[in-house]
Every structure is written in C-alpha cells, then in structure tokens.
Amino acid sequence: MNASVLKSLPAQPASWKRRLLWISLGAVVALLVAALACYLFPHQILTVDSGPVKADALVVLGGIPDRAGHAAELFKQGDAPEILVSGNGDCVSNEKLLEQDGVTNAAIILECSSHTTRENAEFSIALLRAQGAKSAIIVTSWYHSRRALSCFRHYAPEIQFYSRPSHYAYARSEWSRAGIWRYIRLEYMKILGYWLRYGICPF
To answer: What is this structure's pTM?
Structure first.
C-alpha cells in the first residue's frame, strides 16, 4: 500500500461524521419547519371540508353542541335523510338538540356506546351497514375533521364518506375564549398516535 493511500484512510471516518451531522441537522430543521407549519396553519392541516354533498346519512360525533347544530342545518337543507348520533355520554343530549332544531325523532339513530373517535367509526359503521348506507357525511369540529374522516374511511373503504365540519371558533381571535388551542395541540398528538398504533393514515 503506497503512502498516498495510507494518508487518505483517516479522512474517511471524518467524512461520515460530517455527513451524519448534516443529516441530523437536516432532520432537526425539518421538524422545526413542520412544527411551525402546524402552529401557523392548523386550519389547512386539520380541516377537511368536502363542500356541498348528498349522502344516505349524516353521522354527528359527540362533543361540543355546535356539532349537533350543524348536523341539523345539513339535514334541513336535504343533505341526508337521517342522522346517526355517535358517542357515549352525550348522544341523548345531542338527540334533544337535534329535535329542538327541527329534526324529527324518526330520522335519528343513536349509537351511545363509543368512547373514542376510533369507536365512533367502528360502532357507527356497523349501523350504517345494517341500514344499507352507501355514503355518509361526518359532522364534527373543524380541528377534528381530518382524523375523524380518516378513521371512517379506514374501517369501511366500501362506503363513501364525506366531511362537513362545524367551523365554530375557526378564527384565531376566538381560540382563547373557546379554549380551542388546547384541542388543536391534542389533535396533532392523537393524529400521530392513531397513525402509529392503528395504521390510520391522516393523508
């Protein structure tokens, strides 16, 4: 082995260290950019709105009352002939809200056993299949709409699902009053958790 080859050998590990350093820095920068995007553009990242659509049923998920109110609006304008109310703890109160907003009791189906978004999807899908539904509109809050729609599509790819979320407290100026930023932070973590644990891709 000549001298020139020997001189070149020590430089090789250093080049790999530099490459690893650049890769690490690139990963850090990418994470910072992603975090900044999540902070600045939660509406664009979290919201899925299919726009005006017709379907066999509306599925309103448990949570804040504006979801039921928005489902009632969609029902009264003829977007679907029935509403499936999903969620343990508030399905009965949401049923009453729907009736107060002019939805007939005969058009309401209750699913009062689910505790999570994944269970919302699994338990509601069983009822939709029993009804012979081929399509459904998911009604939830704007920041919850991407994960909710992804769950329903994941567990029932044969049904066409749409998203028509409530836009309550959509403006940043309303976040502090309504406590929305806390929900947004939790939603990012839940999206990642559902992706890693259940294989539910949000995109």
So the answer is: 0.84
